[in-house]
Amino acid sequence: MIPKELKAGLSAYRAVVKKLPDNSAVQILCALEAVRAYQVFETVFWESKSDPIPPLGAEIARLTATLTGLDGEYADAIYDKKVAHQPVGTNTALAANKVADTKTLTGELYSSLFNRFDNRHYFAEATDLLRQRIDRNAIGYDWLQGKKGLDAGCGGGRYTVALASLGAAKVTGIDYGRDNIKDAKLRSRSAGIDKVNFRHADVLNIPYRDNSFDFVFSNGVLHHTTDPQRGIEELFRVLKPGGKMWIFLYGSSLWWEMMDVLRPLSAKASRQQMQHVMQLMGYAPNRIFKFMDSLYVPIIESYTAKQMEGMLKRAGFADLQQLHRCVETPFFRGVNELLWDGEPFADVRWGAGELRYLGQKPL
Ligand SMILES: C[S@@+](CC[C@H](N)C(=O)[O-])C[C@H]1O[C@@H](n2cnc3c(N)ncnc32)[C@H](O)[C@@H]1O
What we know:
Elements: H1 4-18, H2 24-47, H3 53-67, H4 81-84, H5 92-95, H6 102-114, H7 119-136, E1 148-152, H8 158-165, E2 170-175, H9 178-190, E3 196-200, E4 213-219, H10 228-238, E5 239-250, H11 254-266, H12 271-280, H13 285-296, H14 305-315, E6 318-322, E7 328-329, E8 332-333, H15 335-340, H16 346-350, E9 354-360
Parallel strand pairs: 1-2, 1-4, 2-3, 4-5
Antiparallel strand pairs: 5-9, 6-9, 7-8
Helix pairs in contact: 1-3, 2-3, 2-11, 2-12, 6-9, 6-13, 7-8, 10-14, 12-13
Bound molecules: S-adenosylmethionine.
């Protein structure tokens, strides 16, 4: 996936990152450099319409030059993909590389991020985004209206509430972040929304019987788990025959490759150090959210459309329909819209885009 023009620069960069010492000055420097590079990547990916490869190459060379010379002791293990994806500092046991409980760490990260959203972004915006995705893909509302659904990995419940607002009879949100669940219950109760309920649970072991729901929905969750295939099989199991499944997973792209470049660098700093640096630099909460989401979640996988379709079919789903269209606001055009319109270099940047599918459990 990495273009060959970037490969040499990246291996020089990786060799330098591997040698970085671990002291507080270097941690803060790494935090600053990661934020600065992220800012450049944001411009290259979201604002520019020209070939992204030269500016990305230049930024990787700049990072390499800045970090060169900061040599010293550095645990090789940090560069191991698994450890780089589980940043030191989120948890002391993890720093000792002993914790395998990805779902607890993931739940804890998202709980700390979602609770910063205000109610408007949480509820009204999510409903608008979901409605746009349904309308632009012309799939109608029959699959959810008057039906009983599951929102697997609901976070703080924004789409659980959106599904109910768009006509579902009852939606159950499950998530492994305890504070997410607490937050979702509190927000929905105080907004007087009674068609939803929330429960702390693992999407890889869904605590409901076979054929319990008329539809299942999972937005941006399974690519953060240890076993996405199992998660898809669990969704299939709890869905009634004839019921619809809606799932979103990250598509493989140059963007995720660039996040993988930054993850070992940001892993040098703790979440708290990083958030502090971003606040000092005047970053708005939603930018901090996106950055922390991409760089601190223990696991991120991304897929080609073929891989994702393979996973869905293996679980038994049929009538798969890829939802190519996404959303647009006055300030933002979603990745799939850029791809749909064939914007210059959109495919180089965004690769497989956002992979959203609607499917059915056969009768
Ligand atoms: C990117 S967030 C998406 C949240 C929500 N679907 C949304 O779009 O707002 C991913 C969510 O998956 C949850 N999660 C990750 N692994 C999980 C697991 N094994 N069981 C339950 N929830 C999990 C996290 O706690 C987090 O809230």
